[in-house]
Specification:
Elements (H helix, E strand, L loop, with lengths): L2 H7 L14 H8 L3 H18 L3 E6 L8 H11 L5 E4 L1 H11 L5 E2 L6 H6 L2 E4 L2 E4 H15 L7 E2 L1 H19 L6 H8 L3 E3 L6 H13 L6 E2 L1 H18 L2 E6 L2 H8 L1 H8 L9 E6 L13 H6 L5 H6 L1 E5 L2 H14 L13 H11 L1 H12 L3
Parallel strand pairs: 1-2, 1-9, 2-7, 6-8, 9-10, 10-11
Antiparallel strand pairs: 3-5, 4-5
Helix pairs in contact: 2-3, 3-16, 4-9, 4-16, 5-7, 7-10, 8-9, 11-13, 11-17
């Protein structure tokens, strides 16, 4: 088709009048034809495609999303409805989520309230959110007490650590009764693995440091980051051999790359025929021309083998906006349409994923060893 023919058949910009009676899907279809609005519309269409299909959805989340409550409004409901299968986030998001489990509050404050006065009052600020310093001390004590337990005294991947913490918090929630589970317990109940690419950059791990200092060699918890990276790649290999894979990127940062690097791990490092993610959507405020990975669009990621060529051409969008401004709106629209899938429970299939990766690498091993050792 020529460019002229393509232009003549392109969708017309002719929005319908807003009546207040449209569903969100109808509103997006009729009143979001251009600019960031069309990016939002495309993101919704791609999310709806995942909800209707067999895609395995890898979700990444950066920024202070749990203090902002985005997990309560959006992510936990998505997990419970089977729309998110693997989560990569920051240790901070999991740590701050636990404040509410032990009865603490996060409150709205003015971002210009005066930081020196807030410090004198022992109030911690995250832009326009605030909480008492005691919240941190009590949450530290919670995680330190949990990680003293015998079941934590072994080497673990990050997903194993967070599954154990999720199990413990689920028991606490069952005992006290909660109106909504925290992210750790919700993912544990739904069989969703939680990876953290930089676990040492967060307060949960600071309490690992504390316990090691207090108990020395008697404290045996350690993180096996080699197995952690391998397991992310193994899950992606399992998923793309069973169907389509999608990545939903909420923000950027380490969670984004930690998930996307599973594909070059498979293809460039382990020599497997990995095709990259089949669908890519991202909500991020960063400019794309500063070379930062947070803002890297799918086309650039394709050059690294992170997403497929078809993804770049037909199944990708970069929405230039703060995720907190649009995700509740889009999740509501999905649920209006009845979006729900059976939970894949990949947490229960990690052994299978590991075994498949090892088996499928068997015929590559000799060649990789020869290449490596020939340089000696």
């Amino acid at each position: 088709m020529s460019i002229s023919d393509a232009f003549q058949t392109a969708r017309e910009v002719r929005p319908s009048a807003i009546t207040g009676q449209q569903s969100i899907a109808e509103l997006l279809a009729s009143a979001f034809p251009a600019f960031v609005g069309r990016q939002v519309r495309t993101a919704f269409e791609l999310m709806a495609r995942c909800a209707d299909g067999p895609d395995t959805v890898f979700c990444t989340m950066s920024g202070a999303m749990t203090p902002a409550g985005l997990h309560r409004s959006c992510l936990v409901p998505l997990v419970q409805r089977g729309l998110v299968d693997v989560l990569t986030t920051t240790g901070a998001n999991l740590y701050h989520d636990a404040h509410r489990v032990i009865g603490h509050r996060i409150r709205e404050i003015a971002p210009d309230a005066g930081d020196t006065m807030l410090r004198e009052a022992r109030i911690i600020r995250i832009y326009d959110l605030g909480f008492d310093e005691q919240v941190l001390l009590d949450t530290d004590l919670l995680f330190a007490r949990l990680m003293r337990r015998p079941e934590f005294q072994r080497p673990m991947t990050t997903w194993e650590l967070h599954a154990e913490l999720g199990r413990c918090l689920a028991e606490i929630e069952d005992g006290i009764g909660v109106d909504q589970p925290c992210l750790l317990s919700a993912c544990y109940r739904a069989g969703v693995p939680i990876f953290v690419g930089a676990p040492q950059d967060g307060s949960i791990f600071l309490n690992v440091v504390k316990l090691k200092a207090l108990y020395g060699e008697a404290f045996q918890l350690s993180l096996d980051v080699t197995q952690d990276v391998s397991d992310m790649a193994a899950l992606q290999w399992l998923a793309q051999n069973e169907g389509q894979t999608a990545v939903w990127i909420l923000g950027g940062g380490v969670p984004k790359n930690y998930t996307l690097q599973g594909e070059p791990t498979l293809g460039q490092i382990l020599g497997l025929d990995a095709r990259g993610f089949d669908l890519d959507l991202q909500f991020c405020v960063d400019p794309v021309d500063n070379g930062a990975l947070s803002s890297c669009p799918a086309g650039e990621g394709h050059t690294w083998g992170k997403v497929s060529a078809e993804c770049v051409e037909t199944s990708s969008v970069y929405v230039h906006t703060d995720v907190t401004a649009v995700l509740p709106f889009l999740v509501h629209g999905l649920f209006q349409q009845g979006a729900q899938r059976p939970q894949k429970r990949l947490l229960d299939r990690m052994g299978e994923a590991r075994a498949k990766l090892v088996a499928d690498m068997a015929d590559k091993r000799a060649g990789l060893l020869e290449e490596l050792e020939s340089a000696d």
